[in-house]
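In response to the reviewer comment on reproducibility (Comment 2.3), we provide here a single inverse folding case reported in full, input and output, so that an independent group could reproduce the run without further information from us. The C-alpha cells appear first.
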C-alpha cells in the first residue's frame, strides 16, 4: 500500500492481504518479513509487531501482522 491511512505513513509501502485462518475466519492484515514474492495460498503465521508510538510518554502500541511461515523442525 503506497497511500497509507493516518498514523501508518512511516510504514509505507506495505503489503495487505486477506488471510484465511485455519479456524475459518478471513482477516485483513499486513504482511511483514517478506523476502520474496507473495502468492495466493502461501502459508503464513501471526506475529506481534510494534504498530506505532503514541503520546508524550511514548506508549508503544502493538498489533498483529503475518509473515511467511518459517520452516519448523520435525519433533524427535
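Designed residues, in position order:
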Amino acid at each position: 500500500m503506497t497511500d497509507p491511512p493516518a498514523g501508518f505513513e512511516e510504514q509505507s509501502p506495505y503489503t495487505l492481504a486477506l488471510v484465511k485462518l485455519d479456524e475459518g475466519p478471513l482477516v485483513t492484515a499486513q504482511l511483514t518479513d517478506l523476502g520474496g514474492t507473495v502468492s495466493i495460498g502461501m502459508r503464513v503465521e501471526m506475529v506481534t509487531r510494534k504498530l506505532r508510538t503514541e503520546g508524550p510518554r511514548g506508549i508503544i502500541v502493538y498489533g498483529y501482522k503475518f509473515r511467511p511461515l518459517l520452516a519448523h523442525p520435525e519433533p524427535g
